[in-house]
Design a protein that fits this description.
The protein is of the alpha+beta class. The protein is built from two helices and three strands. It is 33% helix and 32% strand. A three-stranded antiparallel sheet has the order 1-2-3, covered by helices on one side. The model has no long low-confidence stretch (mean pLDDT 96).
Length: 87
């Protein structure tokens, strides 16, 4: 239970980076996956997608949904964070 919030924390960190102008989606995803593994998760995915279509995000997007799923012990955790620039 102490480690479980790490998934949401990693997705939220990506959200903050997006709002700060970061657009290296691959790097952000890989860093989050590594952090989850280090915390003891078996990550399934971390994705940054367009919120309306769930298609891959582009550098000129101004809204995203950051999605993640990972196994921790016997539980599979799934979470997402909606990000809108200017909110």
């Amino acid at each position: 239970r102490l480690v479980a919030p790490t998934l949401y924390a990693q997705l939220s960190q990506i959200a903050e980076l997006l709002l700060d102008g970061a657009r290296n989606y691959k790097s952000m995803r890989l860093e989050a996956l590594a952090a989850l593994e280090e915390a003891g998760f078996l990550p399934d995915y971390v994705a940054i997608r367009h919120p309306g279509t769930l298609k891959k995000s582009h550098a000129d997007d101004d809204s995203w949904v950051v999605l993640g799923a990972a196994t921790l012990g016997r539980a599979r955790l799934i979470d997402n964070v909606l990000v809108r620039a200017g909110d």
